[in-house]
Design brief:
Strand order of the largest sheet: 2-1-3-4-5-11
Bound molecules: beta-D-fucofuranose
Shape: elongated
CATH superfamily of the largest domain: Response regulator
Structural class: alpha/beta
Order of helices and strands: HEHEHEHEEHEHEHEHEHEHEEH
Number of helices: 11
Radius of gyration: 24 Å
Distance between the termini: 67 Å
């Protein structure tokens, strides 16, 4: 028979051991990324991965290759693995209701990063951290309005992002809202370039071939990668991007600053992809049961070609 004192000591030691095992168990995050479609996305992925490591969070990373079905599968597998928290950047806005209900039923909190979803029940996610895409579209259009202050008319071509994605929907909305102020500014062509360079180039080539007698004066691309692809198409058509056709885009990635330095891109609206550190802090707070804001936005600027040379060395993505 163990004496009662010894029994108590053993019990306490056991409890302490269990407690320290619990405390040192890393928080597990399942993260479903959109894909690797752009420079922005690459920087975003790098930020998430390095921030998880720095925060001591075990990351289960899944690349959806721009397909919603892959994302739904990834989220279901995170639920099955009983991760502590799920974070994801939704490829498109609609169609996540069912899988989000499954996460909720499993009591796994969900954080949206970068892109928003449309759901009838906002309690299906805890918080959303990302940029204000409508405002980015407005900023791009304000620059265009400025160019047309002298009263000239501008025919605009638009390269949209992924069909149904929050940034494509919102950047179009914000741009059109501000553009309305001047009826001489007309969008004469608009199509998706899926946020990639290759598709941006392909669609711009097609735009330039349309024979309706209308000359394109300005290109608005929903991201820098599509603008960079389109710039190539413009050059191959024997025109000067940045001069014959003004080019405005969104993201503010290094490639855009290089294009601005070369005089081929006129302006980029910043969209910060370095969300990793904020996301990890939010995840820790959420799992610890702390209250977090429903919406966390990111501060961003606008850069023109004349600032490119000075800004380039300072760019972090
Ligand atoms: O602008 C684009 C990327 O969701 C904000 O996705 C992001 C967008 C970004 O492919 O380059």
């Amino acid at each position: 028979m163990t004496p009662p004192v010894l029994r108590r000591a053993l019990l306490l030691a056991g409890l302490a051991l269990a407690y320290s095992a619990q405390a040192s168990k890393p928080l597990v995050m399942g993260f479903s990324q959109v894909g690797a479609e752009s420079e922005w996305r690459t920087a975003n992925t790098a930020s998430v991965k390095s921030a998880a490591q720095a925060a001591g969070i075990q990351l289960k990373f899944a690349d959806a290759q721009q397909k919603q079905e892959n994302q739904v599968k990834a989220i279901r597998s995170f639920i099955a693995q009983k991760v502590d928290v799920i974070a994801f950047s939704p490829v498109v806005e609609s169609g996540f209701e069912t899988v989000l209900r499954e996460a909720k039923a499993a009591k796994i909190p969900v954080i949206l990063t970068d892109r928003a979803v449309k759901v009838s029940d906002p309690s299906l996610y805890v918080t959303f951290i990302g940029s204000d895409f409508v405002e980015e579209g407005r900023k791009a259009a304000r620059w265009v309005l400025d160019q047309a202050k002298d009263g000239r008319a501008l025919n605009i071509a638009e390269l949209q992002g992924t069909v149904g994605s929050a940034p494509a929907i919102d950047r179009k909305k914000g741009f059109e809202e501000v553009l309305k102020a001047n009826t001489k500014l007309q969008i004469i062509r608009s199509q998706s370039g899926e946020f990639t360079r290759a598709k941006g180039k392909e669609v711009m080539e097609a735009f330039l071939k349309v024979k309706d007698g209308k000359k394109i004066d300005l290109l608005y691309a929903h991201n820098d990668d599509m603008a960079i692809g389109a710039i190539q198409a413009i050059e191959e058509a024997g025109l000067k991007p940045g001069k014959d056709i003004l080019v405005v885009s969104i993201d503010g990635v290094r490639g855009a600053f290089e294009a601005m330095k070369a005089g081929k891109l006129n302006v980029t609206v910043e969209c910060n992809p370095l969300l990793g550190p904020q996301l990890m802090q939010l995840a820790k707070d959420v799992v610890a049961g702390k209250a977090v804001p429903k919406r966390v936005t990111v501060e961003e600027g606008v850069y023109t070609a004349d600032q490119a040379a000075a800004e380039l060395p300072k760019r972090k993505y």
